Structure formats: C-alpha cells, structure tokens
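> example.struct
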C-alpha cells in the first residue's frame, strides 16, 4: 500500500491466494465476475509494491506503473463493480437501476482516467506515502468523489446479495475513514483497505459451497 513496498507485496500475495481460491469456488459464469475481485486487487497491490521499489531508480518504470495503478483505481473499479452487480442481480427493478449505474460507471471511469492521462504526473512520495495526482486527489473534487462512491459503493449496497452488501458497506466506511485521515493519499490508501475487505467475498463463496 502507500506506506511500504512490503505491505503492498504482502497484501498482493495474500489476495492472490485468496483470489484463486475464490475463483475456484464460483460455480456460475456470472459469479466468476464477483469471485475475480480479490485477484484483481492482488494485481493492483503488486503494481503499487513494484512502484515503491522503482521510485528514485527508474523514472520510466514509475511512469508505466503509475498509469497501470490508476487504470484500476480510476477506470476499472467504477466500470467493473456496477457490471458485476448487474449480472448477479435477479430482481428486475434493481437490475434496471444497476444497468444505469453500469453505463454511468464506464463513462465516469473513462473521464477520470482520460483526465489523468491528459494532465499526467507520475506518482511521488508525500508524507512518506504514495501520492497520485489525479481527479480524485488533493485538492479533492467533492463532486467526482461523490459520483465515484455512488457507482462503486452504491452499486454494491444496492445488490440483493448480502455478502456484496457487506463488502460495499465496509468499503464505504473505509472510504470515509481514509478521507478523514489520509486525504492527500486517499486513492492509494482506500484501494489497499478495500482490497483487504474483499476477503469477505471468499468467505461468501466458501459458505455457499458448503
């Protein structure tokens, strides 16, 4: 995560094992999208660990890894999470709303990542943490952050699946906590904690298999 390379690599290793186990427990195609979440977080945390050890050594690698990390943070999650919830949902009313969320999530993700690329700045260290200059970073854009929360946390909470709701509520609580404590490093820190709470998805599939 933003505090050290070892923390990111440790999280990546744990989530990699958990992610593979979760995917193996998914029985239906629409469940695979949800089961893949911890594994994708593992990839993202590995990228940030690699970014940590590359800072001050290889500027080109830092640029590439900054782009990769923020691809997941700014585009992938707001685009992917509502789609996952949409395909899992069976209630027609909720499904229609989640379809709107999915379309909006893709549009928001494209805007956020496009804005970052247009105003590109590589990751740097601020207060001994990784800082990514992007549309959600300091000075914080309240409107964009609110929209981001709606399409990610909101989609999870709207799902009729209890495990998905729990993941959403935990991620939402941690987002609020990170905004309060780590405002400037919000993107990095929240991605780390959200990745850890994705373990509840493994517990969901483990219980379901039983």
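> example.seq
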């Amino acid at each position: 995560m933003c505090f050290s390379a070892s923390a990111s690599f440790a999280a990546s290793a744990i989530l990699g094992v958990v992610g593979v186990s979760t995917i193996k427990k998914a029985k239906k195609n629409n469940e695979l999208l949800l089961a893949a979440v911890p594994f994708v977080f593992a990839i993202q945390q590995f990228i940030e660990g690699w970014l940590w050890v590359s800072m001050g050594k290889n500027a080109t690698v830092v640029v590439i890894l900054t782009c990769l990390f923020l691809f997941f943070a700014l585009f992938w999650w707001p685009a992917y999470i509502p789609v996952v919830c949409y395909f899992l949902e069976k209630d027609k009313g909720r499904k229609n709303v989640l379809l709107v969320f999915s379309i909006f999530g893709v549009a928001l993700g494209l805007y956020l990542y496009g804005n970052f690329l247009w105003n590109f700045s590589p990751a740097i260290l601020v207060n001994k943490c990784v800082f990514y200059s992007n549309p959600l970073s300091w000075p914080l854009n309240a409107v964009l952050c609110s929209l981001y929360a709606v399409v990610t946390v909101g989609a999870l909470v709207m799902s009729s699946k209890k495990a998905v709701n729990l993941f959403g509520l935990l991620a939402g609580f941690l987002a609020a906590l990170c905004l309060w404590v780590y405002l400037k490093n919000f993107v990095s820190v929240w991605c780390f904690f959200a990745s850890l709470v994705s373990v509840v998805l493994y517990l969901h599939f483990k219980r379901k298999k039983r």
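> remarks
The CA atoms of residues 44 and 69 lie 6 Å apart.
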